[in-house]
Design a protein that fits this description.
10 helices, 5 strands, alpha+beta
Length: 308
């Protein structure tokens, strides 16, 4: 029960924002306890639809109803909470990657820490440290694959796991280039979408795209570190430029080094296998999936030997 005059602090997701001629406007919020409350926000301050905030409020009476007047509110990504608690809230409010973010973060940071080439390690670590908060929040796509909160980190981690088999079979592959190329290949998707919770493309995302932005980012960081003329930088840039393989998919060059070709294959495998797995989960054994654009609009049969 909410009592007038009492203070209430909670995480909540904004569902609806109404206009008002009063000093504050009403916001429909679902709380972390799955309750619906009306939070009043001062006209001089703005909240965004579908976003999670930590609200500091006080219960007031407004037109014979109890509302919660917000004294402060902070986006969840700017709050100082443990990764486990943030992940729990994200999974409650949004469609979220089927992962444990703590374990994935540990694996990715171990992979970066094991890079031996100084140029590649310094560039990879500086970019990762600068953007890691968004890296673990953003989706990998708007609709076709890993299109949910933390999809980018999930996709990257899956590619790293797949790459271990490739490197075990093909010893000519350079581990440092493989690891760095995988971690950096999609990192500029954090600039391609309007926000992590509502993955619409930005103008910059539509006109420039994450491939070109990623190459520019590597060049910028390499220049800051004094590495811009090194071969390692050229190789990393080539991996990013070519990882979509085809020009109509955004790559101006096809892969011309072994690591770029393998990363293209691994990227393609994971993006398609992830979608296939999700669609198979939606049907019963003995049924066909719906047609899938990423798989040439084919329908796949879920046979009775399929692992659940």
């Amino acid at each position: 029960m909410i009592e007038v005059g009492q203070t209430y602090d909670f995480f909540g997701k904004v569902n609806l924002i109404d206009d008002s001629t009063y000093e504050s406007y009403p916001v429909n919020v679902t709380t972390e306890n799955n309750e619906t409350v009306i939070v009043r926000v001062k006209q001089s301050k703005k909240v965004e639809l579908n976003k999670i905030y930590f609200f500091n409020t006080k219960a007031i009476e407004f037109k014979d109803k109890i509302h919660l007047e917000a004294s402060n509110f902070t986006p969840i990504e700017d709050t100082d909470i443990e990764d486990e608690n943030r992940e729990k809230l994200m999974k409650f409010f949004y469609e979220y990657a089927p992962i444990n973010i703590v374990d994935i973060k540990k694996d990715i940071e171990v992979a970066i820490g094991q890079i031996k080439n100084k140029v590649i390690k310094d560039i990879s670590d500086k970019i990762y440290q600068r953007f890691q908060k968004d890296f673990y929040l953003y989706p990998a796509a708007s609709k076709f694959h890993h299109a949910y909160i933390s999809g980018l980190a999930y996709h990257t981690h899956s590619m790293l796991r797949l790459s271990e088999g490739f490197m075990a079979v093909y010893p000519f592959l350079n581990r440092d280039l493989m690891v760095s190329g995988i971690i950096l290949h999609d990192i500029c998707k954090i600039f391609e979408f309007t926000s992590y919770e509502n993955s619409e493309y930005t103008i910059k995302g539509k006109l420039i795209g994450h491939i070109s932005m990623g190459v520019n980012l590597i060049h910028e960081v390499a220049k800051d570190l004094g590495y811009e003329e090194s071969e390692e930088v050229m190789l990393l840039e080539h991996i990013l430029i070519s990882h979509h393989y085809y020009g109509n998919f955004g790559s101006p060059k096809k892969p011309n080094i072994a690591e770029a070709l393998m990363i293209h294959f691994i990227d393609n495998i994971d993006s398609k296998a992830c979608v296939l797995g999700e669609e198979l989960d939606l049907v019963n054994k003995g049924e066909l999936t719906k047609s899938m654009p990423v798989l040439d609009r084919e329908r796949y049969y879920k046979h009775h030997l399929t692992n659940e």
